[in-house]
Design a protein that fits this description.
CATH superfamily of the largest domain: GTP cyclohydrolase I, C-terminal domain/NADPH-dependent 7-cyano-7-deazaguanine reductase, N-terminal domain
Radius of gyration: 20 Å
Oligomer: single chain
Number of strands: 7
Largest sheet: 5 strands, mixed
Number of helices: 7
Strand order of the largest sheet: 5-2-3-6-7
Number of domains: 2
Order of helices and strands: HHEEEEHEHEHEHH
Length: 187
């Protein structure tokens, strides 16, 4: 990923000056460079395609639920550039023995989350990537997150969670299967 550290540092200095701070004071002097390095890390998913994690598949005669729960993630709200964070739950039912490594589900979530983002888009993008690459019977993705744009500003409601879901294939068609996966997620 090509991040222009110099532009970010200049922008951070401008923001600091604009809010009445002195970017040359001791506590802030290295802040522009730290922010540039942080942005490179937290936006490292911009050029990543989550589907790449599903290029390697394994043959396993398993056509029942595969669920990875409580995958922690951090992202940045594209409306305010403040963090939101939470957990993702990713489930799929393999078809024709096509399974992927469990860590690949978590890596796909991370790749999509590491860009200016909306929670709804993360949920849909992960579900669509799995459907396209693994061709399972169905995919269900649920994300629960706290948004700092609602916690530290605006309505100031700390602890409130936003839940989004994406159901594909038989999870979209069959309410009983959706309820089953929700029960497994909720534990």
């Amino acid at each position: 990923m090509s991040v222009n550290h110099e532009q970010i540092k200049e922008a951070v200095k401008l923001i600091l000056t604009s809010i009445g701070e002195n970017p040359e004071r001791e506590g802030l002097i290295d802040t522009p460079a730290r922010v540039a390095r942080m942005y490179e890390e937290v936006f490292s998913g911009i050029e990543q395609d989550p589907k790449e994690y599903f290029d390697v598949v394994f043959s396993e005669e398993h056509e029942e639920v595969v669920l990875v729960k409580d995958i922690p993630f951090y992202s940045m709200c594209e409306h305010h550039l403040v963090p939101f964070f939470g957990v993702a739950h990713v489930a799929y039912i393999p078809r024709n023995g096509r399974v992927t490594g469990l860590s690949k589900l978590a890596r796909a979530v991370e790749a999509v989350a590491r860009r200016p983002q909306l929670q709804e888009r993360i949920t849909d993008t992960v579900a669509d990537a799995i459907m396209e690459k693994l061709e399972p019977y169905g995919v269900f993705v649920m994300i629960e997150a706290e948004h700092m744009c609602m916690t530290m500003r605006g309505v100031k409601k700390p602890g409130s969670k936003t839940v989004t879901t994406a159901a594909r294939g038989i999870y979209r068609e069959d309410a009983l299967l959706r309820n089953e996966i929700l029960q497994l997620i909720r534990g």
